[in-house]
Amino acid sequence: MNTLPSSDPLHPSEPVLSRRALLRAAAAAPVLALPALAHAQQAPASPVFTPQVGQQGKDVIWVPTPDALVDRMLRMAQVTQNDFVVDLGAGDGKIAIAAARDFKCRSLGVEYNPDMVGVARRNAEKAGVANLAKFEQGDIFVFDFTAATVVTMYLLPSLNMKLRPTLLKMKPGTRLVTHQFTMGSWEPDDSSTVDGRPGYLWIVPASVGGNWKLATTDARGTAELNASFSQVFQNVTGTARLSSMEGRMRAVKLAGDRLSFELMDDRGVLRSYDGRVAGDRIEGTTRAQDGATGTFVAQRTGAATPVDAGRD
């Protein structure tokens, strides 16, 4: 180190730092302190949003469905790995996550609150099903969920009713399950209660109301008749006319797109029909009381009547 003679007469031999060395030391000192200063000035991390039971949402307050009822609802809907489950008003994501975790199917939760969407996504990551259970921010009255094969809801009756027209237009056979609340005069196809909490199931019915031309083919040949169905949701009655004869159908049942009924032909032979509805056409098989089997095709003639028959 370079030194200058001391100016202190009492210590003539004590070395002193050169001015250049002092300047270098002074310049270096603030640089060494910068990292600690920068760390001290960092803004604190934003707290992670934590949902609270009863918090206000867009249309309802948030109250999660109990785990046992979630499982029962998904089993009432007969969910399989081939289904696509959409939960409307997903909250923390528990229903969509349960569908992916327990039934290995794709699921989607639609939630209006973006903070809750973040919670649901984190929960899906923790459950190891983020590859199957997805969550989107959106308004359930605008969001297109018509690709679902199963729809789950825990909404108020008024909101169920607001959604009902959209639900009734979904593909016949789509299953709908709700916690607690029903859909007006549309009676559920099944219900369960778990620890005092009710769950309900509906199966979207095909549109069969109106007039049809029906042709039956078996070993006896082909016979044609006119049929007419009256429909209120999944409840259907029917009549058939052949020549001058008219009769009421028996045991008419509609489950999704599957329609079955019994009808006595002009020979007095009771015949059962079991077919699938595809728009304005029904195709299926027949079996007569005497054991003869055959096929049938029905084509709609005229306009279809509303599935809900104008109820509510």
Give structural notes.
This protein has helices at residues 19-41, 67-76, 94-103, 114-127, 157-168, and strands spanning 3-4, 16-17, 84-88, 106-111, 133-137, 150-153, 175-179, 190-194, 197-203, 210-218, 221-232, 235-242, 245-248, 250-255, 258-264, 270-278, 281-288, 293-301. With 312 residues, it is α+β, with helices and mostly antiparallel strands. It folds into 2 domains: 67-203, Rossmann fold (3-Layer(aba) Sandwich); 210-301, Lipocalin (Beta Barrel), CATH 2.40.128.120. The strands form 3 sheets. Strands 13-12-11-10-18-17-16-15-14 form a 9-stranded antiparallel β-sheet, with no helix packed on it. It has a 7-stranded mixed β-sheet with strand order 5-4-3-6-7-9-8, with helices on one face. Strands 1-2 form a two-stranded antiparallel sheet. The longest helix has 23 residues, at 19-41. The termini are far apart.
